[in-house]
């Protein structure tokens, strides 16, 4: 009996240690949960739930108003696979991405570098170039519609005035020009934002690097390519990601300026989704289109970030 | 200690969940909770008087929703209409609200689904595909009983009644019938020595004369808005292919790629090439083309009588006339195109049924017609039978009302299904933009019409 006593004590001690460890784990979990739960709950309620619901809708046949929905499985996705208009819209989106990247990334970087070099009035230039970004897209749309007006628009008036009548175009009405014209308007509306990002990135580059390059006799172009551009790698990644995402899901400007027309020439997936849902009352099919667009955006973003990480 | 911490964490998480759930709840959920708690409080106070008062207030209020005003002229007109109704029904308080009542934008369906601030009756852009979205969604009430009780079958113009009574139930009370044709600037016509054309040859001659002038567009149209190019094409169809051809397409087994229809599409492209229709049509919005016309930069604008309030606002009521293109078919007369432009519907959640009936009865009465037709700037041709005996004071509206006294032609935009509608607008844009051929355009519209038919869309007479 006495011989067993120490064993009992050891066992009790072990139990206490185990209990203590468990309590510590619970305590740690409670602390972690109390910190994470606000964000997780909000993220779940406002992001994950609507996304999951969108996927659910895409599996039904629903007009957006009817109290009943018919389950159709992947029928909406099968229809999408044969929808030439959807692929046309997707093609326009990709063209938009390419043009946006071309017109947005390097020009805004050059602009930011030029502004950073300005000795006087830097704030003025920064504010002036940023100004379009604070305008509502509705205003930008109306403004550029007038700029592109074939009769009274300043572009055509200028071209005619300098004798280049043959270059005056129906900018928003011709197949060749409608998407580029829209991209230019979009670029104008957003370049201030990207310029500010680049300016912030430029401020973080050590000036000693330029001084060292000066001593080595590097010219401005070499300094730009070998110091500025590599130093702004992270900023550029953010800008490129934002440009791609914006180009793939842009809606407002196109809707205001062309509504996807003429004759589907500026139709992008987001305008098609809107028409399908609200003009044609095919909410489920529109949701399937949105889901596919969402997946494409996710693939683009993940792919780009993967490439970026591998090349770093 | 740990238990307290856990209890606090759980409490915190529960609170957050509650906040999250409350935020996700529909506004209607919120409002109904409020009503319930009010009722509960009333019960606790053992005072049924307040509740009864609230209920009586609800019974005496008629909440109307009408389309947004385009201008101050319309605002004044509606104010006077409501004043007159209030005079006749002093026990009813009318709350008039304006808003986006288009099915296409999704606003109306969202409003009715939310059941928040549901109007008792609303005026919306009509057309079979629009009304059917709401009726299939059980968002509006069938009105068969009211029609039967009040014998409204005879209170609505036969032409309009035929258009709404083809289905199993009637869901709308037609408010106005469209009359879409050409508005022309009288000054411009006079300047070039032109008269309103009465024959196809005269019509083409007018367009030729005007197209020879570089300072003026013969016909302006804002094709960037599909409905606007649809108005022009509809008028051309009526004049060149005739009403019967369109009836074949809408009600029977007629096709959009019928050679006669393709011919009209071809004519449209030819008119563009010849400069009869302005070349910039594809870039213009409807408002742009309207202002071109109002500023006398264009001689002819195709549209409905809605333009009248704009004319009134610009002081142009006496300098603009209205005419329909003459029929190109021997022995036939082309009528302005149209259909039912706007209709009243009663939402499922409407509260004050009696007041709704009184309002609709008022709208269909000669009293209402006399009030609105006495405005020189009134812009709708009423759909009521009683209104046919009242003559509008305004010249343009009077001319249009005479033209559609026995019914109008068809504005295709409001008689086609959703797939066809989208294809119709886009392909007409493609035509005026030179981006597709007449054959391709009409084939594409027919293809969409077949899809609509496969989805069960078929108009009945």
Helical segment count of chain B: 20
Could you tell me how far the N terminus lies from the C terminus of chain A, measured between alpha carbons in angstroms? 70 Å
* Helical coverage of chain A, percent range: over 70%
Biggest sheet of chain B, open or closed, and with what strands and sense?
A: 6 strands, mixed
Number of strands of chain B: 12
Strand order of the largest sheet of chain B: 2-1-3-10-4-11
Oligomer: heterodimer
Specify the biggest β-sheet of chain A.
2 strands, antiparallel
The averaged pLDDT of chain B comes out at: 87
Spatial sequence of strands, sheet with the most strands of chain A: 1-2
- Beta-strand portion of chain B reads 5-15%
- Strand fraction of chain A equals under 5%
Distance between the termini of chain B: 78 Å
Report on this structure.
The complex is a heterodimer of chains A (312) and B (461). Chain A is flat, with a radius of gyration of 28 Å. Chain A has a two-stranded antiparallel sheet with strand order 1-2. Chain A has helices spanning 5-57, 75-81, 84-117, 122-134, 137-147, 154-161, 178-203, 207-215, 220-231, 233-249, 252-257, 269-279, 283-311, and strands at 60-61, 70-71. Chain A is 76% helix and 1% strand. Chain A has 312 residues and is mostly helical. In chain A, helix 4 packs across helix 7 and helix 7 (178-203) packs antiparallel against helix 10. By secondary structure, chain B is of the alpha/beta class. Helices cover 51% and strands 12% of the residues of chain B. Chain B contains 20 helices and twelve strands. Chain B has helices at 2-24, 27-44, 48-59, 72-88, 107-114, 128-136, 144-150, 158-164, 186-191, 200-211, 226-240, 243-251, 259-273, 286-294, 307-313, 353-363, 366-373, 395-403, 418-432, 438-454, and strands spanning 61-67, 93-99, 121-125, 173-177, 181-185, 217-220, 298-303, 320-323, 337-338, 340-345, 381-382, 409-410. In chain B, the strands form three sheets. Chain B has a six-stranded mixed sheet with strand order 2-1-3-10-4-11, with helices on both faces. In chain B, strand 1 (61-67), helix 4 (72-88) and strand 2 (93-99) form a beta-alpha-beta unit. In chain B, helix 13 (259-273) crosses helix 20 (438-454). Chains A and B meet through helix 1 and helix 12 of A and helix 1, helix 5, helix 6 and helix 19 of B.
